[in-house]
Amino acid sequence: MHLKNIESSITQKLVFICLSFVLTILLMTPISILAPNQPFPDLLTCFIFAFFISNKLNVPISGVFLVSLLADFLWFRPLGLFTFFMVLGIELIRWHLQTRNSISFLLEITYFSLFFVIISLCVSIVEFIMAIPTAHYSFSINFVIFTLLTYPATSVLVRFFHTQKRSKYES
Fold this sequence. Notes:
This protein has helices at residues 2-26, 43-54, 61-74, 81-96, 105-129, 137-170.
């Protein structure tokens, strides 16, 4: 029984890392040849956070670091800036939630909203201080809003697949 739990946790860690890498690459594919008028939500951050909340023990911080760093590199974000705040935020939330097995959906959305808004503000402040060119502020605000609106659907999908997998192991 104990060996099966260890094996499933290794499998879940590999699933998390593989799905994150696939999502990182898929989000780079062009949907249109025209430049977007509206920002596309950050589905990778939504996925990482939703997977983390549904399964805190099987989200390796090294996986979050590698996937976020790859996204920084491929998506032309300042290298390591978003990654630093992402890893820091995930670890702070892991520390805060270490005594809880699960949280309510409303609390999860609240945590993600605070998490993403604070990360976006920190990244924007550092970019401003370092004089890194950024998108117009209305584009950045729309990006944050679209990501916050997308998170509940991402979380529901991750929870659904996580419970399906758990029920398959129990039967």
